[in-house]
Amino acid sequence: MSAETWQLVAFTTRMAAFSTLLVIPIGVACAWGLARSRSRAKVLLETLVTLPLVLPPVVTGLVLLKLFGRRGPIGHWLHDQWHLDVVFTWRAVVIALVVMSLPLFVRAAQTAFEEINPQLENMARTLGASEWRVFLTVTLPLARRGVLAGALLAFARALGEFGATMMVAGNIPGQTTTMAVSIYQSVQLGQDAHAWGLAGIAAALAFGAVWASGLLLRRQRP
Amino acid sequence: MNAGLTAHFTKRFRGGATIHIDTLHVPAEAGITVLFGASGSGKTTVLRCLAGLDRPDAGEIRFAHAIWSNAADKSFMPPRHRGVGYVPQDYTLFPHLSVARNIGFGLHHLPRHQRLARVAQTMQTLDIPDLATRFPSSLSGGQQQRVALARAIVTHPRLLLLDEPLSALDTPMQLHLRRELRHWLRNAAIPTVLVTHDRLEALTLGDAIVVMDAGRILQQGPVPDVFSRPVNRAVADIVAVETVQPAHIAHFANGLASVIVGSTTLTALATDLPAGTRDAYVCIRAEDVILTRDAAPTASPRNRLPATVQTILDAGPMLRVTLDCGFPLTALLTKQAGAELSLHENATVHALIKAPQIHVIPR
């Protein structure tokens, strides 16, 4: 593996791992809220969370570009407060990956939360547990397989993300270029061997993550 | 001061079912109050309201001097502050925790060594010391029941709520655990509300009984009183045993027991009575009591009791006759039979009861 290939694989894996670490707390909060919600807005919220899964990724990317660009509402604020630039940096890669992989995570985790017998949580309450303790000692441990499986799916999705990343982070070699972007570029430049090499690595990583996720979900019911 | 638990509340369900509790009183002294009624009569809902898992739409629940729930001023004490021990019907053990950690769940405020000591002691009491590292999925029904009970009493709750604690078990196990349960609950000395639809369970375990039907309380009081003097036909139908009297076993051999009730000695068939039982209830259904005018010394029933008619009540085509035969006894006979015997108050008759129709329930 050339130094350049190695850098691409390491960078992409690092970005995917970091975004997955962000997806877990955000996604657990969303999934738990949706699983327990009886509000009429539930379907609306579910649709919003799922949207990046079905929208063309470049559309999601475009929205993120407008939000986080220096003249966008969030980008402007970040720049003013902390002189933080997002668009066309590694931060934009992470944001794109988080938004694109969140729906997969929420779907898996929400199902896991919905399968928990609410009487177990009630039992913990009668035994003196606060809501926070109920969540940490009963709800989350019982949903752990679903959460973990969701995290692996999110990681796999993040590894291969292309459209949104391209829009919001661009293609700056060594700074924002991910494997998927590099494969596209290589094909454009006629470097098929390089493209195939990266494609193989990407497929192997994704295969491993999805396979592990499937194993976890299958064993969910002991 | 009226200590213990007092409750009057209404809980409505979306389907239209309504639970309306006029007055429920559970004394502060240790003792078992049985909520008795058919399934669907609202017993579990009452228990869930007491535990704080359901919120009444109207009324108030008070324990000692604390208000647990008051719909008028919207005060509601969450379950975790109520200090109740709750054992639901399916036990609801935490599947991801070992038996020891299940039992110790409510003791998280204690330092580790104290928690472990309390858990070990409770497991010893309930005779399950070897299960500590097992997981609920590997336990038998009887073992799960003990673990659930251990988890509920280890915290020294102020009130214990048991929902059909024996119904998930097979019959031999029920018989065995019914006696043990009473023993444990006596030793734990915690006021207890126990839900059951099983007459024997109510009689064996209950000190007081609350009869429920269609979301309402029909009658409450000490077990023998409610069983012997149902306030109306509905209660009589639900309890289905009109005479329940405390009794002492005087002699027991070859499956026949001599039982002293009031000033009378009865002979009863009691093949499944545990050896060494002294205190018991005798239960006699009114339709099993035969009345005659003469002593009929050659009749087959073992028990021939001289009796005085106390009251005669109209019950549709039947007459419900209360008698004094050294203890209060109720008989049910057709109006025609009543006319042939020319029954009237203070009449002297003989009550005949076959030995197998006197049910002895150990206490």
Q: Can you give a write-up of this model?
A:
The complex is a heterodimer of chains A (222) and B (363). By secondary structure, chain A is an all-alpha fold. Chain A has one domain: MetI-like (MetI-like fold), CATH 1.10.3720. Chain A is built from eleven helices and no strands. The N and C termini of chain A lie far apart (42 Å). Chain B has 363 residues and is an alpha+beta fold. In chain B, 23% of the residues lie in helices and 36% in strands. Chain B has nine helices and 21 strands. In chain B, β4 (58-63) and β5 form a beta hairpin. Chain B starts with a strand and ends with a strand. The chains are: A mainly alpha (222), B alpha+beta (363). Chain A binds chain B through residues 117, 119-120, 122-130, 133, 137-138, 141-142, 222, and chain B through 51-53, 78-86, 88, 90, 92, 94-96, 105-106, 108-109, 137, 151, 155.
Mean pLDDT of chain A: 92
Mean pLDDT of chain B: 89
Using the alpha-carbon principal axes, give the shape of chain A.
Answer: globular
User: Shape of chain B, please?
Assistant: globular
Q: Please give the number of β-strands of chain B.
A: 21
Strand count, sense and barrel status of the largest sheet of chain A are:
none
State Rg of chain A: 19 Å
**Count of DSSP E strands of chain A?**
0
Show the largest interface.
Answer: A-B, 18 and 25 residues
User: How many domains in all of chain A?
Assistant: 1
SSE run of chain B: EEEHEEEEHHHEHEHEEHHEEEEEEEEHEE
| Low-pLDDT windows of residues of chain A | none
What distance lies between the first and last C-alpha atoms of chain B, to the nearest angstrom?
31 Å
